[in-house]
Amino acid sequence: MSLQHPHSETGIHAVKIYGPKVMFDRGPTVAFNVFDWKGERIDPALVQKLTNRNNISLCIGCLQHIWFSVKHKEMKEKDEF
Question: Which of 25, 42, 43, 48 could bridge across to 20 with cysteines, CB 3.0–4.6 Å?
């Protein structure tokens, strides 16, 4: 989570991991995006190709029906759910 681009003057992070920050709460699946030195998201298909070349196995997935307990309580109170 502290990986940054070496020549970025603004200290842009190279990777953003979504979900719990504690590894044992995350489980076997990790959702993340990779960013270039300008802060723009790199296409996941390109990231997968580059990792395959280095014998790292990644799969591209699409998250659906995501539920956040904190947001659920707020939405329920506002009758937005």
Answer: 25
Residue 61, both tokens: 């997935």
Closest among 25, 8, 36, 27 to 16, alpha carbons compared? 36
Q: What ranges in the chain are assigned the alpha helix state H?
A: 23-26, 44-53, 69-78
Sequence length of the chain is 81
The pLDDT of residue 81: 42
DSSP states along 18-31: ES-SSHHHH-S--E
pTM of the model: 0.61
